[in-house]
Every structure is written in C-alpha cells, then in structure tokens.
Amino acid sequence: MRSSIPLSVSVGLVALLSLSACGFGGEAGKTSAADPDQRIVVDNFRAPVADWALASDAAYILSLSGCLETLTRYDETQGKIVPSLATEWKQVSDLEWDFTLRDGVKFQDGTPLTAAAVVGSLQNVLKADVPARAFSPKVVSGVKAVDEHTVRVTTPTKSPLVPYRLASVNTGVLAPAAFKGESVDPFGHCTGPFKPVSEKPKQSLTLDRNEDYWGGKVQLAGAEVRFITDGGTRTTQVQTGEADVSLSIPVSGLAALEGDSNVKLLKADSPRTATLYMNNGKAPFDDVDFRKAVRSALDLDALAASVYEGAATPSTGPFAPSEPWSIEGAEAPKQDLEAAKKLLASAGYTAGRPLEIVAIVERAEFADVATVIQENLKAVGVPVKIVTKEYAAVEPDLLSGNYDMVLSQRNRLIDIADPIGFLTADYTCEGTYNLSHFCNAEYDKKIAQAATTADSEQRYRLYSEAGQILQDQAVNVWLVNEQAIDAVRTDLQAHVQDPLARYVLRAETAKSGS
Description:
The chain is an alpha+beta fold. It contains 14 helices and 23 strands. Strands 2, 11, 12, 13, 14, 15, 16, 17, 18, 19 and 20 form an eleven-stranded mixed β-sheet that branches. A hairpin with a 2-residue loop joins β7 (142-147) and β8. α13 runs antiparallel to α14. It is globular and about 70 Å long. The two termini are 46 Å apart.
C-alpha cells in the first residue's frame, strides 16, 4: 500500500498547514455535553457557480458541507494522503494505479458504492467541457473498473502524484443517479456524513444527518451552509450567534472578535498569497522592465502593517518561506522609487490612459490594497483607476486577457496537496488558469520534469527553480503571505480548522446543548 507521503513531504506540509482543533463550550474551559438534536450554521465566502458540476468549484461547497467524499484524503494533522472511500492503492505499472474500494459504503440514496459507480463519476469529470485541473485528460488518460471493488487510473506519462489527485475534491464520488443528461444532482447522492436536502440558489444549502454514514455516528442533526461573500457580514453573524462557523474572516473584523468571549478565532499558516496579477500579454505589462518597475514602486512593508494590520507578512515571491519548495535566500522586495523610475524609462513608458486595477469584492481588504498601490504607482508617474467587481463577473475577462491588473489570491495547494497543479495551471504556456498570460519555455520544461519526478526533494528543487524564473521575470507582484482566519462559537465541539476550506462539516462536529 502506498498511502503515505515521504517523511520530508509530511514535515513540510505539516509546517505549512498548521491548524487548530477545538472543543469549546461553557465557562472556564468547561464543556457541556453535545446535543445530537443541534443544527449549526456555516458562513462560507463563496457560492457554487456551475450548478454543482464536479469539475467546478462547486465541488468545494459539497466537500466542506460534509456531502462529497473522495477515494483518498489529505489529512492535515498527519501531513499525508490517507484512505477514504478507498482503503489502499498501489502502482501496478509505470502508467497504472489500482485503488481498492472500502466495503459496505452506500450512497445516500441507498445504492452501493461500486467500482462501476466510481468510474462513472470520475469519467463525468474527465469529460467535462472544462475539466478540473487536478483530474483532466492532460494528466489522466483513463479510468476503468478492474473488478467490483477495484478502480484503475491510467496516466499518459509516469505520474507519482496520482494518489494526490484522487484526494482533490473535484474527484468526489456521486451515485449514478446524480448524473442526468448534462446536469449534476448531488441531493441524496453523496456518501458523506451530511445529506443535502434543499437549496436557495446563490444563498444557502440545507443538510440533514446521514443516518447510515459508513464512518460512524454523525453528531449533528444537520446544518445550513450560507453563501456570504461580504466579509463584514460573516464577522457580524458569528459574533451575534447567527452563525456557528464563519470562514475567511477579514482583518477588519479581528479586533471585534478577539474581545468576544463567545467566539474563538482560529489562525493557521496558509499557502495563499495576495497577488497583484499583471497581464503579461498586453502593453505595457508585456515589458519585463515595466513589471519590475511596478514591483519596485510598491511598499510591501507598509501594506502589511496598514491594511493587514500585521496579520500578514510581506511576500518574498510566489512561495512562502515556510514552504519546502521556497526560493532559497529570497527576500521581500523593498520599495525603491528611483529604481522604479529608471525601469520605466528603460521600458519606454510614458503616462497615457490610467491603468485599471480590479479589486475582487469577495476579499474585503482588496479595495484598501488597491488604494495603496494606486498611491505608490502615482509617485512614479503611473496613473491608476480602481474598479471593484465580484469574481464571477470578472473571470471571463481575466481568462481572455481583457484586463490590466487584478488583485486576487490563489491557494497553491488548491488542486492537490502539492504545488504542481498551481504551477501548471497558472504559469505554463497552456495553463488553464494562466491569468498572467505568461509563457516561458524554460519554465515549462522544469514543470514538465517535476511532474514525473517521484523523489520529493528533487521535485521541490525543480519547483524552487521554476519559482525563481517567475520572480526574475516579475510575472506578478506577490504582495503578502496570508493566514487562514476562521471564527467559531465556543459551544462548537470537535471542530478542526482546515486552512484549505475543504472539510468543515464532519461526522464528529458537535454542538453543546443550551
């Protein structure tokens, strides 16, 4: 069985994804008994945008809601891939991996988990018009049932990361009845501890306990997951008790919550970096000296201290220093206005139309970040206009290259618990999420080599070298390394923070009785 990441990986990822567990409730640390009739409310920072298609970000909603489960799972406390719907797996040839399914698992509609059902669900993802980055035809060439309990995954080239890919929420398994024509219906068709029973589109998802959950007794009667993009509202609702869990608390809400004895703040190192994306395929950003000038003009120390109130640190590049693939010796760039002006002259830049920064409204602090950047660039003669938009509204323009700059943040482990997905999708010439519209043959060569490298230390060295290329080319300005900050009511029990927001409602999640 090859279910463990090598020790070096475990140590690195445990350090990276430090987390908090809590069993709160009562005065002076006393915990009241859990009430099995309790329901809770979770405020999430985004809503599904693709009608529950597994290849989309809707899979994250289904996963954090305790509905959708995968064959393997990344365990935060152990820092490794562990069994879930599959109990073991092995590489049977250079291009083939076999996964053995857990006995006795039933979908919430009562039908059994079989290899045929798993294959059908995974093929739905592979055949999607826009496949998931973690499980696309580029990295998986086929899925088939070897027998009733064994699923074989075939890859086009040798890949040591297949168990990681099967832990991606996009590879979550739904019952055959979930797939009706072109639509996907998760209601009653998951395997997880909670069963979705109703939804208010773009507003909320209501779930009940799965009485027949294979993983043991589910402690809550149910839950409501609310889709609230406004960070201030999420902060207020957990403080008033309208929500039991609020994910992604903005820095502006920390002071109020830190002084509330009924709320516990959970903070964890996060593989997220707030980033000023620059459109490398469009003038003036197609000139590396102009991009370097933007980087030199920005005061990251002041940004971290003011807007982020010290809750984030100036970024040293595309990776955080704590990550095992970080660029050795990298330091956060310091503001140098004279150097910025010389680089602008070298690029032949003359001020014309104001350049536009899009600030994504889902991140409340980005409006203030944009204002700081606007002032920094004004000091070197680059006029900037700020617009605010919801991410769903602006994504088509970002992907098509119809923008100047955008403030956003990406999770480097968003696809799988290894940065290969992020580095491939975001920066290779054919990357499916290459918002920067960057293309470099040397970079692509290193990523292709890393994708077939089983030795973690060698693979991490290649990631570091690829990151150095991104830094040397000033592809973007990586602004600050963020923390994952969630808030929970103190009567919530057995809650474990997931910095990647994949697993929130779990079978062991409980709430004290009133």
